[in-house]
Amino acid sequence: MSWPRSTKNADGERDPEMHQTKKGNQWHFGMKAHIGADVDSGLVHTVVTTPANEADVEVVDELLHGKEQVAYADAGYAGAQNRVTRPGLRWEIAARRGRIKALPEGRARHALEKAERRKASIRARVEHPFRVIKRQFGYVKVRFKGLAKNTAQVITLFALSNLWMARKRLLAIAGGLRPLQAVTG
User: What span, in angstroms and rounded, lies between the C-alpha atoms of 118 and 72?
Assistant: First the structure.
């Protein structure tokens, strides 16, 4: 999610709590933020941060609150259903692109592509908090050394993104903003 520059500091060392990973053909150094969010409202209920080199599926159990009936996840969480066994929980995990491309043209491929589009449209709602903290709040790179400080900042930003995304509903409940009336005397 957020990547500090990998240039070395005055001591000639990188942050020992951050690590590097390859995404596509690009190397990144830093940390990842993983979120658990409500599919209906899009509001974040859980935030977990890890060094960039840790697999997404490693923290899947921490992202669930326990009352889910369906869990939607991207391809980075493949195998999550084997790590978390909860009765009544249905997993909807995106297929890796290579699996879809390997299928020959025809009904099976078309059906799989349609199912993946349906999953992606639901998962897209959960990506909105990332857009809010990156675009509305301008958070694209970590600013501190160490996971603890960066985690505190990321949790705060996701809490603020919840307020941002729920602002219209909150204002409707409160009756909207009322302008201050000037006191004349």
Answer: 11
In a domain? residue 11:
no
Given a cut of 60, is residue 2 above it in pLDDT?
A: no
The total of other beta-carbon atoms located within 10 Å of residue 95's CB is 15
- CA neighbours closer than 13 Å in the CB half-sphere of residue 10: 0
- Tell whether 9 is covered by a domain: no
pLDDT of res. 114? 92
pLDDT at 183 over 70: no
| Residue 79 to residue 36: CA distance in whole angstroms | 17
Question: 159 to each of 41, 100, 133, 172, how far by Cα in Å?
Answer: 14, 36, 10, 20
Name the pTM for this structure.
Answer: 0.77
Q: Does residue 184 belong to any structural domain of this protein?
A: no
The range of the structural domain enclosing residue 121 comes to 19-165
Strand partners, 43: none
Residues 6+ apart with CB under 8 A from 31: 1, 2, 17, 18, 49, 50, 51, 52, 142, 147, 150
Long-range contact set of residues 22-28: C-beta below 8 Å, sequence gap at least 24: 28/3, 28/52
Residue 181 per-residue DSSP state:
P
User: How many domains is the chain built from?
Assistant: 1
Question: How buried is residue 103: exposed, middle or buried, by Cβ count under 10 Å (0-12/13-18/19+)?
Answer: middle
